[in-house]
């Protein structure tokens, strides 16, 4: 079994930490009201995300220095998500509907956070996060929709930006192609998706994981 280089391990952990930069359970007031046309686009994004029953896609994760790792994303509504890294990266990130967990098999460590404290909740419960805290960002291409989610009262939480393109085969005619997480230290992590596959049968067992921590004998 190939051990994960420390750089890759830190990189994967950075993705999770960056993803946790914008708490879903925000207490600050919502951003100013959107213009009617912008609000309609945000509503369309919410509908498109809610229209996904299951999704599998390949992903490429890139940091601000250009370091990359690849893997497969599996999403199942409600609340389940899994980032399975390619062979050579012996870790995974998985959400079981309640918790978001980073499992590192090389060092036999597990880190866990409530999904409600992650902006990945924007993918899993878009009505709560995108609808209330999302703001449309201008793009040069009318076929591209960019939604920024952040708490303006707490810039230390960071920002996550979701990017969609028009695609008739995707739910709601919009396909999530990437997102960018930027933390308070200006550390950027980008996830790009490709080879989207919708509506596949996905077992709930997909979101289980083996605990690598040594068992304590009593």
The spatial strand order of the largest sheet comes to 6-5-4-3-2-1-11-10-9-8-7
Provide the structure class.
Answer: alpha+beta
Shape: globular
- The overall pLDDT average reads 80
Strand content: 35-45%
User: Which residues sit in consecutive blocks of at least 5 with pLDDT less than 50?
Assistant: 1-7, 17-32
Largest sheet descriptor = 11 strands, antiparallel
The CATH architecture can be given as Clam
- Percentage of residues in helical conformation: 10-25%
Task: Tell me the number of helical segments per DSSP (H or I, 4 or more residues long).
Answer: 4
Q: What is the number of E strands? A: 11
* Pattern of helices and strands: HHEEEEEEHHEEEEE
CATH topology: outer membrane lipoprotein receptor (LolB), chain A
- CATH-assigned homologous superfamily: Lipoprotein localisation LolA/LolB/LppX
Domain count: the total is 1
Q: Rounded to an integer, what's the Rg over CA atoms?
A: 17 Å
Report the span from N to C terminus: 30 Å
- Regarding CATH, which class? Mainly Beta
SSE inventory with pairings:
Blueprint: H1 6-19, H2 36-50, E1 54-63, E2 68-76, E3 80-85, E4 91-96, E5 99-104, E6 109-114, H3 121-124, H4 126-133, E7 134-137, E8 144-150, E9 159-166, E10 174-182, E11 188-198
Antiparallel strand pairs: 1-2, 1-11, 2-3, 3-4, 4-5, 5-6, 7-8, 8-9, 9-10, 10-11
Helix pairs in contact: 2-4
Overview of this protein structure:
- The protein is α+β, with helices and mostly antiparallel strands and 218 residues long.
- The chain has one domain: Lipoprotein localisation LolA/LolB/LppX (outer membrane lipoprotein receptor (LolB), chain A), CATH 2.50.20.
- It is 19% helix and 38% strand.
- It is built from 4 helices and 11 strands, in the order ααββββββααβββββ.
- An 11-stranded antiparallel β-sheet has the order 6-5-4-3-2-1-11-10-9-8-7.
- Strand 10 (174-182) and strand 11 (188-198) form a beta hairpin.
- Helix 2 (36-50) runs antiparallel to helix 4.
- The longest helix is centred in the first third of the chain and has 15 residues, at 36-50.
């Amino acid at each position: 079994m190939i051990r994960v280089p420390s750089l890759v391990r830190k990189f994967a952990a950075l993705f999770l930490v960056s993803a946790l930069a914008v708490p879903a359970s925000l207490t600050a007031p919502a951003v100013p009201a959107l213009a009617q046309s912008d609000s309609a686009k945000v509503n369309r994004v919410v509908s498109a995300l809610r229209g996904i029953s299951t999704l599998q896609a390949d992903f490429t994760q890139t940091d601000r220095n250009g370091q990359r790792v690849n893997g497969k994303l599996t999403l199942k509504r409600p609340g389940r998500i899994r980032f399975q890294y390619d062979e050579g990266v012996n870790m995974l990130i998985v959400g079981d509907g309640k918790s978001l967990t980073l499992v590192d098999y090389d060092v036999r460590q597990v880190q866990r956070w409530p999904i409600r404290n992650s902006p990945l909740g924007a993918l899993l419960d878009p009505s709560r996060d995108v609808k209330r805290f999302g703001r449309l960002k201008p793009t040069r291409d009318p076929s591209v929709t960019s939604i920024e989610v952040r708490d303006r009262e707490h810039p230390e939480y960071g920002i996550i930006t979701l990017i969609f393109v028009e695609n008739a085969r995707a739910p709601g005619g919009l396909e999530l192609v990437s997102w960018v997480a930027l933390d308070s230290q200006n550390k950027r992590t980008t996830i790009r998706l490709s080879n989207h596959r919708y509506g596949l049968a996905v077992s709930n067992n997909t979101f289980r994981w083996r605990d690598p921590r040594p068992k304590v004998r009593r």
